[in-house]
Every structure is written in structure tokens, then in C-alpha cells.
Amino acid sequence: MKADVTTLDAKKAGTVELSEDVFGLEPRADLLHRMVRYQLAKRRAGTVSTKDRSEITATTAKMYRQKGTGRARHGSAKPGIFRGGGKAFGPKPRNFGFDLPKKVRALALKHALSSKAKAEELIVLDSCDVKDAKTKALKTQFEKLGFGSALIVDGAEVQTNFALAARNIPHVDVLPIQGINVYDILRHEKLVLTKAALEALEARFK
């Protein structure tokens, strides 16, 4: 399948051939769902923690005599029924991540790319090079191109001036090809790939 190539000045710069194995698949919602869950679970900090009765600092003396008070038998102020006591079965630091086969992750990325191509939300840029790191000028160029919410993926390295100019534009994220992922692709309206990114993707999936 073919796609038009455009420049940052919204001018045509020829066409490029897209691989059917990467951009021509019928998107599967179940694969995309599994991959998004995997990514979001992996990024959870899992640092919430509460103290149980063994970690509470309190006197270990018996609170009151065993018999004759008419009250329940208590030997410590540490249980959770008392103010300042330990939490029973409270959360502890844990890892929320789970495993997903490498082949499933690779396939999910292909389906995410195919979903953007099928929805005509894939744009191919000639390059992401700008002379000056001027946010206002780059924002004007993005408006001409129709970039509202966009994920821009460049080659192995993103030009410094372009990264500096784009980092303060709302709803626009810039990544090198190593950082491309399913969640970021799906949460942006447009996926913008440079020709260098396309070459890297084709080499990755060979």
C-alpha cells in the first residue's frame, strides 16, 4: 500500500510504500486491549503501604485487668479496632506487572499501526528537521498540517531543535523509534512517522 509523504510546510514530497505485513492488518481489539493493560500495569508504582499491628509503636502492657470490668479481653493497643492501631490486611508494596509473550507484543504494535493506517490517521513526514527551536513557528506548521493530538515518531535520534520546539505544544508528543508503543499510538488522534521511522520499523519486523 502507498502513502503520501508531506513536509513540515504542508507540501507534497512524493509517496512511500508501506508494508502490508505491518500496516495492512485487520486490527484486533483483543490484542490492543491486552497490550494496553500490560503497559499500564507495568508503569504502576505499587508503593502504597500501611502498617500492620506488628509495625505499630505502642505499649505492650496489658490495657486493663482481665476480669471484672465487663469489657472485652484486650492485651494490646495495637489491633486495628483501636485508634492508632495497625491496619488489618492493608496494602503492601507489590509489583502489578504481568508477563506478555514477546510475539504478542510485536503483533499488538503491528495492529496498532494498522488501525491508524485503516482509519486514515497515519501521516508520513519527510523529516522532522527545523532550523530554530521556536515553538510558535512549529505550532503554526502543525496547524497547517492539522495536527491537534499527534504522536510524532522519528528515527534513532530526534533533532534537538525539533524536540525543544515541540515539547511545550499541548497534545503533541515526540519519540525516537525506540520509544514507539501501543498505548501512545492509540491515545493520540494522529500518528506521524518520518521516513527514517518507517525504515526502522520495516527493519525491525523483518
Provide the gyration radius in Å.
27 Å
* CATH top level class name of the largest domain: Alpha Beta
Beta-strand percent range: 5-15%
Number of helices: 7
The low-pLDDT segments are none
Overall residue-averaged pLDDT value: 93
Instruction: Give the overall form.
Output: elongated
CATH superfamily of the largest domain, please? Answer: Ribosomal protein L4/L1
Strand segment tally: 6
The CATH topology of the largest domain turns out to be Ribosomal Protein L4, Chain: A
The secondary-structure element order is EEHHHEHEHEHEH
Region (Disordered): 65-84
Biased composition (Basic residues): 65-76
Keywords: Ribonucleoprotein, Ribosomal protein, RNA-binding, rRNA-binding
Family: Belongs to the universal ribosomal protein uL4 family.
Description of the structure:
There is one protein chain. This protein is α/β, with parallel strands linked by helices and 206 residues long. It has 2 domains: 2-45 and 99-204, Ribosomal Protein L4, Chain: A (3-Layer(aba) Sandwich), CATH 3.40.1370.10; 50-90, no CATH class. It has helices at 20-23, 29-42, 102-118, 135-145, 160-166, 182-187, 195-204; strands spanning 2-6, 12-17, 122-125, 150-153, 172-175, 190-194. The protein has a 6-stranded mixed β-sheet. α2 (29-42) crosses α3 and α4 (135-145) packs across α5 (160-166). The chain is elongated and about 95 Å long.
